[in-house]
Structure formats: structure tokens, C-alpha cells
Q: What sequence folds into this?
């Protein structure tokens, strides 16, 4: 039974962070060592990012808050609010994005309306509250209160895949199921100034965003393209457990993103793809570049460089990931859905084109998905 992503919509906060401006602010912070200042410049300049978005309005250079908590424009100081303050903002601002993206996804799903939704799966690793975002979505969208609700929390950048995997299983178990999946990450809430290389890297690459999809096994209606969810696999690399992590501190969540992560991915990426491609023998022996589309989670420029080189992909096959990184930065779990959204908006030449997708997260966990871009109009 084929299961489709019937729609895929994205949303971002209104405040834009311009990479060069953010670099200058972070490089000028008191307490930075000479090495720290050089690391800030290097990390921001080499990130291949132009802009990011933030739910923290006072991070804008044009903001003039009366009681600044994150950034004081008068002193040019990046401040360190408590985890409680950061999480309170998450509860308010993340809810807005969960609702906005979810509503847009249902509105754009052909032949589906709000009354059809049977399951809601929400995803985030950048904050907590309860009743949670799954509850808030049901209430705000006016969904049936008997809708089944699930929240996947604190999994990290790969979490969209377990959510889509669960949605597919719900649809296989019940052909009438219509699942709304929403990922929202407010990574900028946890920005801080530091001489620590991991913290500097996090400040240089992470941004905020939301993505939502409607998943169903109903027959496709209309000419709009859809993504068929064919296969999923999960692989844990034998090394790297300490190289990528996400912990809760007194002044926000603390990212561990070791510099060796791209090398771990490079070393183990082909092994991670083997069980996925083995599900379709016609693909298992082909050169990787013969799979038309590659939706790679842009965890950082160096990760994309390693993937492109190791798999011998063309530069064109990495454009969706690199453009997503350039325009939005790394939005954790939502990012790979932005990459897929980019693909949906491009012209296609075949009725069916294959997509191989990957995301990486704490563990080191590699989630992979094999999809088909279906264009009924062709």
C-alpha cells in the first residue's frame, strides 16, 4: 500500500539574522580570548550561510527592548538568560509556528480538510511544555479532540524520520488514517557567547524553522506533486556517541558538535546506506549519483562536502541541501523537510523520480529514507 506525503509546508519566524552581522556581534563579546575571536570569525565565515531566522525578536539589531534578556543593543552584549526564561519563550513562540505550519499543510493537501486528520505527531528538541504542542495544535486547528496525539521530543536533527516512519505505519495499519506531522525547532533560544568551539559552532549555524506534512494512503488527487514514502532505515555508527550530543544546562541547552563528526559520517555513510538500498535490488548496485535526488540534512557545510565527495555525487544533486543551509541555516529536525520542500518546487521531467534522503544526529545516529517524487500531471 503506497503512503504519500500529500503536502509539505514550511514556516519561519519574522526576525532575520544576517550572518555577517551576527559574526561581528559574537566576535566583539567581552571575555573572548584571541583564539576564541578567531574561531568565531572562522566558523561564521566558513558556514556557507547567508541568513537565518530567529523567534527571539530582540536578537535583531533594530530591536530596542526595554528589559533585554538575550541581547543588549546599548552595550552590544549577548546575554545569558536562564533555561527557564528560554523555555518560556519556546512555549509561546513554538506554538505559533506549530499552528501556522500545520494549518498550511492541511490547507494545501488536495482532498483533505481538518476533519480528516486522525493523528498528530509533533517534533522538537529545543524546548518542553505540557500540555504540549500536539495538544495546542488540536485545539488551535479545531481538530477532533479524539485525534491520536504523539510528541517526539529531544531526539535531535534526525527526528523528522522517526515521525514520518510512524506516520507511514499508522496509514498502513489503518488505510483511513490521515497524519499531520509537524517539526518545530527554535535553536536560537540557546545561543550564547563562549570560547568553547562547540558553542561557537552552534552559534554560527543554527536557526529556527518549522515544517509540516500531511501523510496519507489515499489515492492522489489533482496535478500537485507528492512524495511517496517507500522505505526507512536506522543505523548507529560504531563510534561517535560523544561527538554529537544535546544536553540541558542552567543557561539553555548545550550543544556538543565535535569537529570529527564530518569524518565519522564520511567513514560510515556507505554502510548506513546499504540496508536502505538493499530493500530495492535494482538500486543496490548502481552508482549513488544514478539516484536522481539526494535530500541530505545540511548539518553543516563540511558534512555536505564529505557526503558529496564520498558518494561521488554531482554538485547539482547537493543544491537543495546547500541552498537550504544558505538561506536558513541548520534548523535541526525541520531542516531535511525544507530540503524536500525545495525539491517539490523544482521542475521535473519524469512522472516518478527517486529521492534518497539522510539525516544525522546524536548517537551518532544516521536515519535514511528512500522516497519517490510523483508528478501526476506528467
A:
Amino acid at each position: 500500500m503506497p503512503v504519500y506525503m500529500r503536502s509539505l509546508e514550511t514556516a519561519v519566524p519574522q526576525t532575520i539574522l544576517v550572518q555577517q552581522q551576527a559574526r561581528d556581534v559574537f566576535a566583539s563579546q567581552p571575555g573572548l580570548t584571541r583564539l576564541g575571536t578567531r574561531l568565531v570569525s572562522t566558523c561564521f565565515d566558513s558556514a556557507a550561510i547567508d541568513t537565518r531566522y530567529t523567534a527571539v525578536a530582540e536578537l535583531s539589531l533594530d530591536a530596542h527592548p526595554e528589559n533585554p534578556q538575550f541581547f543588549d543593543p546599548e552595550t552590544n552584549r549577548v546575554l545569558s538568560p536562564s533555561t527557564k526564561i528560554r523555555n518560556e519563550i519556546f512555549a509561546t513562540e513554538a506554538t505559533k509556528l506549530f499552528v501556522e505550519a500545520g494549518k498550511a499543510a492541511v490547507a494545501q493537501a488536495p482532498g483533505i480538510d481538518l476533519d480528516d486528520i486522525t493523528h498528530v505527531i509533533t517534533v522538537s528538541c529545543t524546548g518542553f511544555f505540557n500540555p504540549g504542542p500536539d495538544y495546542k495544535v488540536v485545539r488551535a486547528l479545531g481538530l477532533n479532540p479524539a485525534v491520536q496525539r504523539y510528541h517526539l521530543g529531544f531526539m535531535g536533527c534526525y527526528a523528522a524520520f522517526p515521525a514520518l516512519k510512524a506516520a507511514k505505519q499508522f496509514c498502513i495499519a489503518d488505510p483511513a488514517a490521515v497524519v499531520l506531522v509537524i517539526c518545530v525547532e527554535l535553536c536560537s533560544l540557546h545561543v550564547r557567547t563562549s570560547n568553547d568551539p562547540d558553542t561557537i559552532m552552534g552559534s554560527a549555524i543554527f536557526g529556527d524553522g518549522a515544517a509540516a506534512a500531511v501523510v496519507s494512503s489515499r489515492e492522489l488527487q489533482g496535478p500537485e506533486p507528492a512524495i511517496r514514502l517507500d522505505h526507512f532505515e536506522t543505523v548507529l555508527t560504531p563510534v561517535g556517541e560523544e561527538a554529537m550530543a544535546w544536553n540541558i544546562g542552567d543557561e539553555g541547552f548545550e550543544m556538543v558538535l565535535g569537529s570529527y563528526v564530518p569524518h565519522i559520517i564520511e567513514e560510515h555513510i556507505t554502510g548506513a546506506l546499504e540496508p536502505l538500498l538493499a530493500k530495492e535490488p535494482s538500486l543496490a548496485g548502481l552508482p549513488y549519483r544514478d539516484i536522481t535526488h539526494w535530500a541530505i540534512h545540511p548539518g553543516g557545510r563540511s558534512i555536505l562536502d564529505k557526503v558529496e565527495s564520498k558518494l561521488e555525487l554531482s554538485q547539482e544533486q547537493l543544491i537543495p541541501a546547500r541552498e537550504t543551509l544558505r538561506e536558513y541555516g541548520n534548523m535541526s529536525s525541520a531542516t531535511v523537510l525544507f530540503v524536500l520542500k525545495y525539491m517539490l518546487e523544482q521542475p521535473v521531467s519524469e512522472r516518478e523520480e527517486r529521492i534518497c534522503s539522510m539525516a544525522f544526529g546524536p548517537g551518532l545516529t544516521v536515519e535514511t529514507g528512500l522516497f519517490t517524487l510523483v508528478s501526476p500531471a506528467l
